[in-house]
Amino acid sequence: MERRDGRVPAPDRPRGGLGPAGGPAEGRAGGPAGPGRPGPRQDYLDAFDAFDAFDTYDPLRKSAESADAPERAPTVPGQRSGGRRARPVSPAASGKGPGHGRSRQGRARSLLGVTSAALVTVLVVLLAGQLARPDEEDAPGRAERFALEPDGGADARPMPTEGDDEGEAGEAGGGGDVVEDEPEPDYDELMETTFPLDPDLTGSGELVPVAGSEPASDPEAVTLLRYRVDVEEGLGIDAEFFAEVVHRTLSDERSWGNAGERGFARVSEGDYDFVVTLASPGTTADWCARSGLDTTEDNVSCNSSSTDRVMINAWRFAQGSETYGDEIADYRRMLVNHEVGHRLGYGHALCPGEGALAPVMMQQTKFLTIDGVTCEANAWPHPGN
What we know:
alpha/beta; 6-stranded mixed sheet
């Protein structure tokens, strides 16, 4: 068609610009950009290279691939890109300048770190859930069981469950038995128990007063005797138990109170009349020798009259004697009464007749028969009281 001015009109051009051969402008990878629409910006297209919309998103793999992928060559002036004349691109604007590789690698490492932290968090949550779940076999050493608040809140606190009183875990406890400490033996049980001790033991020689005091067995007695109890350090015999044996024995009405004549009070400091001392065989022999007594032949006890000490041989107290056999409790009572009797001024006695109770001042640790006459073992000065 010819215009009035004689010029031939140019063909209509698409709004999207011209391609290399005068065709429509191309979009990504030379594809059509569509009528009337310019192609997307190259930096937008580059941003999607690391993500495939039709593949499972794997940030670790994509980051690694992005870090290892070769860099794109920068567009230079005069070179066509996607059907349009490209503008000159500086290294800084294209992101290809110094540090570009390091930036891409840094982003990959950051993404890797975030992903690793997320994986660790998931593992911690799973582990916490496993620990909180009641197992059929509870882990050794687990002593506390937790239950939710009655209103079903999330705050947990230790709460007893059924079976606690019997030492067994209830159904809500998740299994496992609660082990309770065995009760300590009481006085009567200890009195019937023998203790291991070397008959040749010589201890440290450190004689330690037992703390505490006990009131007079008879406050209205004519004579009040105060005594202290010492125990050699390192014997392995409970010092408080020994002190209780001494006090119970001397406070018994069958002992040396003599119906109101004497009363006995235990002290741990201040004035005293004598000291009842539990010591090893070697230490006992040393203190007895100070008063001219030899206890080594029969490994016995003594009243060291030239000192303040009534010496109780710890091996005899722990093991007893053949004359008393299994009656270790009565032997211990006899031992205390016999040696304290010496402190009070009583000497040795003989068996009065066949089958009679042995006097407490008879040397019952050594024998019950003398001159063909045998007595029965007896722990008390006044057994009939």
